[in-house]
Amino acid sequence: MTQTALAGATADASTAPTVDSSPPRPARARPAAKPHGQWKVDGTAPLNPVEVWKQDDDGLSVRHRIETIYAHEGFDSITDDDLHGRFRWWGLYTQRKQGVDGGKTASLEPHELEDKYLMLRVRIDGGKLTTEQLRTIGQISRDFARGTADLTNRQNIQLHWVEVESVPEIWRRLEAVGLSTTEACGDVPRVILGSPVAGIAKAEIVDPTEFIQELSRRFIGNPEFSNLPRKYKTSITGHPNQDTVHEINDVSFVGVLHPELGPGYDLWVGGGLSTAPRLAERVGVFVPPEDGPAVWEAVTSIFRDYGYRRMRNKARLKFLIADWGVEKFRQILEDEYLGRKLPNGIVPPQAKGLGDHVGIHAQKDGKFFIGTAPFVGRLSGDKLVELADLLEAHGSHRLRTTVHQKILALDIAKEDVDSVIAGLDAIGLNARPSVFRRNTMACTGIEFCKLAIVNTKDTAEYVIGELEQRMTDLVDAGALGDPITLNINGCPNSCARIQTADIGLKGIIVPTDDGGTTGGFQVHLGGGLASHNREEAGLGRTVRGLKVAVDDLADYVERLLRSYAANRLAEETFAEFAHRADEELLK
Questions:
Q1: What burial class does residue 514 get, using C-beta atoms within 10 Å of its C-beta: 0-12 exposed, 13-18 middle, 19+ buried?
Q2: What is the pLDDT of residues 387-429, one digit of tens each?
Q3: Which PANTHER family match (predicted)?
């Protein structure tokens, strides 16, 4: 082609359509989805470091090393994967080093935050204790835990300042009275929540006592379930007040009276809070009491086999339920694990009353139980021993812990009720608490927890005292209506169930007017679980930009409650008000 012709061809090409004679490009392949680490789908090859050490050596195996090595050679001899992993399988965590400011929680390495002391969690399935067991825990607290004893909202008792050298002796004493720390923490079936009035309540639909005992006997410490994807929480109640917070557990059994099949349980799965809260859903099946253990075993096996193990923050059962839906879950449950169909269930009726059981109540045998409120679960070894002595002096040898950080004294004769109440008051256990003391909950907080940012127990106690003094006019006038729950959490997790409280407070760092920072709270309002005044559970509302410094908390709560009293509609609950009101009324 000549130079002129080439130029002309080029000019023509600029105006004419271009024909691409090259072979077509293959469609871009989408990257293959990463495996979730589901054993039944992806195989059992571990996909993260935690899963590696869990498979290398089961968490239950660390007890032997504690007894034969660490208790003799001391804290510094403990290997990292045992200390920060397997110790949890026996209810042991390192606790926070004293004096480390909350502002440093997120910036320091774990070894900089932790002390050479342990938190030890005593497992109390169903909240059932004898006075002998209570006294033993109290004496252990005195001897090995600097007198500490905190009642959790999962019916356990936690001790602090425990040295690894003391752990074998603590186990010996606990196990001598039928208690343990087995699987009180870790990727295992945690404590089994149970109605604290199981077997004694007049209104009980079904008694879950044998159900809870069989689960504990057969499955706790069983290697079949000692390597689950994450922690696994169970609740079982047969009481019409639905007193085990079933909506926020991995698996729950709620007592119902089936019109054709009689008393049994409605099955719920997939609840959990923390930083990705999700409420449990009904599976839609009726579980006869005799089938309870088999159904629990099947649900737990599904979690073990199909639960997500690649990412720790997606490993709870709630994420599997969110992806599958309850229809698929039921199909897998019945077809793959039970090998039979379950009857269709019925919706549990609305709760009849408060589930904390505070106050004086008649038992079905003619005696009484007394529900008491310690300050946000804070007890001591001395108080536990004194409580055991008090009950035994009045002929009682049983008590229960609750999911609301309360303690129930059982089997009190009618003529002894007043005497026992006076004795309980003397040791700080109030059977007729103020509405604020009764309905405030707090997690461990910065005092001992490595994740915490703010002090929770002392803050809660101070706020309760202030509200009791400042709010007598509204309380006496009945202007606050039903009890209003105040839950205080020391970090963004939700050990104190902040998303399901009327007023939920999440520990954070907040700015100050002088350009610095201080400990404070993000506020969640209007959450709650199903109760006598709420048909369905719901999560709280986060008010934009509303952050409250710790020192301003009492003022804020007073202001908020007075706003509610002044602006509520007739019969409107606080939760209804909090979701309806303009933000300015909530600040």
A1: exposed
A2: 999 999 999 999 999 999 999 999 999 999 999 999 999 999 9
A3: FERREDOXIN--NITRITE REDUCTASE, CHLOROPLASTIC
Q: pLDDT tens digits for 6-48?
A: 333 333 333 344 444 555 565 565 666 789 999 999 999 999 9
> How far is it, in rounded angstroms, from Cα 158 to Cα 135?
14
CATH level 3 topology of 438-585: Sulfite Reductase Hemoprotein; domain 1 (3.30.413)
pTM: 0.93
Residues 31, 36, 42, 46, Cα dihedral to 10°: 110
Per-residue model confidence (pLDDT) at position 224: 98
The residue type found at 262 is: G
Q: Looking at 185-250, which runs of residues are DSSP E strands?
A: 189-194, 232-237
The pairing of strands 486-489 and 440-442 is parallel
Q: Which two tokens stand for residue 27?
A: 């469609």
354-386 tens-digit pLDDT: 999 999 999 999 999 999 999 999 999 999 999
Residue ranges per domain, the chain?
438-585
Which residue, 515, 422, 401, is CA-closest to 155?
A: 401
HSE-CB at 407 with a 13 A cutoff on CA atoms is 30
Tell the burial category of 23 from Cβ atoms under 10 Å away from its Cβ (0-12, 13-18, 19+). exposed
